[in-house]
Amino acid sequence: MMEQPVGARRASIGARRNPASEKAILDAAAAILAEGGLSGFSIEAVARRARAGKPTIYRWWPNRTALLLDVYHRSKHVIPDPDTGTLEGDARMFLTNLLDFWNDPANGTVFRSIIAEAQSNADAMAALQAYLDDRHAYLAGIIDRARARGEVRADLDSTALGEWLVSFAWHRLLTDRIETSPAEIETVIKTFAAGAAPTSK
Known about the structure:
With 201 residues, the chain is mainly alpha-helical. It is built from nine helices and no strands. The protein folds into two domains: 1-60, Orthogonal Bundle (Arc Repressor Mutant, subunit A); 74-196, Tetracycline Repressor, domain 2 (Orthogonal Bundle).
């Protein structure tokens, strides 16, 4: 295969993403974030590094937050779906995996950047909210599974309960205290499961 000349732009195939171009853009975006954080991140910088046209990037990602979310989500798929058979076990695995994932500076920095961008940009907030809606549904599914086993009260909203659990991880991420001891995680999990459990008669 002929090697692409340095500085040549990768081919775009319109609205349908060219896999090679998509990977190059996401790799470039991840590298820029790892090197300089949000302050050095822009569509222009990504286009230069990926040797891609800005129109191509904007066609696939309407704003930089959408691109940031794809960079983040590309790594997040490696987190396994917890299904231990108990609410405590699932919640413990979920929270531990999430904190371990964010402990990697590349992942934690990207998500903090997304949250920061969303505070002053309505489009960014909409992109973040769409992503969070999907994640809330995922976590609600874990809780609904526990409810079917009789571990969660019928009157509790699964989405709100899931948000309560993940709020601990968010607080640690945003205050740069991702390093969390097993004892701290255990306290959160025990409190979470006890609060969700059906009331004993």
